[in-house]
């Protein structure tokens, strides 16, 4: 066997391994998809089929028409979008300070912010509950403020690495033209940091879209529920109606998928600009 | 800004810090300190002024409570197993995806899919797949592979319940570990491999002497974040065990804390449990970071 066939063989072998692994990764998702199209009578059929005999849209019609699903969807969208925008803004302002400005005590403040990466979010639920009660925040504003706060530490840490890599000559040129810190931040640093910001957007949107523990204690009013709460409740009320549970779940996955597809182009590149690289 | 005329950017810095500081103080630092205070009281949620100071009573209660100890063991086992497997498989996937293979972008997106699914949804999905009577997993094991004689009731046994929970975490986490490793791999200069090839090093030698050492910081970062995440496991335990079924033997530390707090309204005990967990997470993270420094030296 010459070198070239050896190399092709090697490639083929790797492709086969990747494809087999992919099969395992995608099997549960595939199973969820086909279950959402199965009639209720076939949910516990034996043997379980990976290709339904009968396809039906009944689960979608039933699940989406039930329990104000559209309202919960909009609630989640509102909370996730505002939390994401707010996190990008607040974290990048913080990261700008830590990456670019100089003053005494900067490192100390940075380390205090890093604490947020170590403390479990669920641990804070008790006192946050009390603070929210005190400030009357058992509503979407409360969700948004808490989600933003819980994301700040990690995303500031990532963005600091990104901003440090933006060449400094550019901002010196801006300074000569009379631009202040705000101009530098808004006109130079942010536009040049897209890949890193994409990572922050994906991370925060995903977190806010799927957060369960805080929403579960903070939202009392059923018309304010977000999707994760609604889906978990729906399952506990309709124990065996898995087709409907998964129909609702799949619709709930669509926005995350769209966000991921839009921003994934920058994803790997973005992670390497955050300074997590070796 | 390296403007020599100015030595401190204190004023603009304060303006940029302000929104973050307010949020952080109000919803993070404040709550953290408040929680510490609560943990020393038999806390009355409706009339906090009537709370009774109990010193370390809540902490002692936790440490001597067999249900708490069991929750700690469950959480440690879960963390250890999932972190190790996610690191190994994540690295394998990253090494494969770092090569010029056809369909590379497709593979990257597809392997990342489980990461972007939400915990609530996939916890329910795995509950369905591991259903005791007609679940897909039992079918594969019993009728297809024929390695078990009869259906397994996964969620009726205190140990078996951990199997779907652990498999779920691995399934959902490999993509993330892989993408972080991939970013690390891409930061390794290609010239190093060129030079190694010129010297006649085979791919195993290159992996051992170039890739692995240069991935050190990436690996430590992953270990720190994954361990913190594992110790904080909540949603899959809550949903798949209904919060500790059977007999409170399958709690994670946080589902127990949640039940104590919002189920029994024992806020002081819940706060003490969360402080024990945070203290532990903090110590483990410090040890891991120390190891990273040693490795770098």
Question: Can you tell me about this structure?
Answer:
- The complex is a heterodimer of chains A (278) and B (297).
- The model of chain A has no long low-confidence stretch (mean pLDDT 86).
- Chain A has 13 helices and no strands.
- Chain A has 2 domains: 3-59; 61-273, Orthogonal Bundle (MetI-like fold), CATH 1.10.3720.10.
- Chain A has 278 residues and is mostly helical.
- In chain B, 71% of the residues lie in helices and 1% in strands.
- Chain B has helices at residues 10-38, 57-64, 66-97, 104-116, 119-129, 136-144, 162-186, 190-198, 203-214, 216-231, 235-241, 253-263, 267-296; strands at 41-42, 52-53.
- The chains are: A mainly alpha (278), B mainly alpha (297).
- The interface between A and B is large, with 97 and 99 residues.
Cα distance, first to last residue of chain B? 31 Å
**Mean pLDDT over all positions of chain B:** 87
Radius of gyration of chain A, whole Å? 24 Å
The main sheet of chain B comes to:
2 strands, antiparallel
**Rough outline of chain A:** flat
What quaternary form is this? heterodimer
DSSP strand tally of chain A: 0
Going by CATH, the architecture of chain B would be Orthogonal Bundle
Helix share, percent of chain A: over 70%
CATH topology of chain B: MetI-like fold
**Domain count of chain B:** 1
